[in-house]
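Q: I'm writing up a methods section and want to include an example of the input and output format. Could you take the sequence below and give the corresponding predicted structure tokens, formatted cleanly so I can copy it straight into the document?
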Amino acid sequence: MDFILNEKSLHGQFEDVETFLKSLKNNIRCFDIIHKKTENRIYKIVDFHKCYITGDKQICDLKYQPNSDELLRFQIQLTEEIYTKPYWDENVQHDMDEEYMWQNENVTATALAEAVAHKSSLLSFDSDQYRDQVLCIQKGDRDYKVLSIYSPGYLAQNHSKDLSIERCEELKILYEGTRIDCSLLESKSGQDFLEQHEYELLKKTLDKFVRHESWESIDLDDGLEYKKYHGSGKSDWFTGYPQTIMKFRYSGKQRVFGYRKGDRFRVLYIERNHKISDKG
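A: Here is the clean output for your methods example:
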């Protein structure tokens, strides 16, 4: 699958280099997800290194910037990406004689127009104009929808099948950094046994859980039925866990089990048949 790195999403919007480098965490994560399959490609322009990250600094100026180890790693990974083929402007696919318009701006000869021709999504940097949204680009009397992706969650939400992202990994990506912690999930944790419509219900419920204002509002949500799991003896599925195991409903008789750690709920198992709930 092909993606196009959006040079227009770097327009000198960052206050300083450090802020830009910190914002790269999402971009680098997206690059890593995409490159897990070697046939996936990220196109960019040859002169991407000339893009401005602040009002007076370009990407090519980063080599003169002292950074922490983590920020240096982000910088190195970005540099590797922009200096690695393919370059779309070496073999332009969109019609340069046509006008491609976006928000009353002619975007011919940019990544936006090339994304239309490639039927590809854009990979954008952190910019209000391009952060995780659908761009409507006009060519003549036709409108084209192009995804502009900044976060790993938005990438997984829209391209999990295209990138062969399995459910376990998808849930980890979608809820990374939220109230829901899926980092302990494994292939045997239940998500792979769900029918597609059940899996969609699960994600909708996890989204709802994340959107809640507080743990108090979660406790009061009758739809979730967030409460303690009371398994004991041989019927206790979670023997050996010192934590208090909790559960909540994502549909009819189906439950999610886990425990709270700090301000996050660590998911341990996703039930489909209510057998665990029947015994606790």
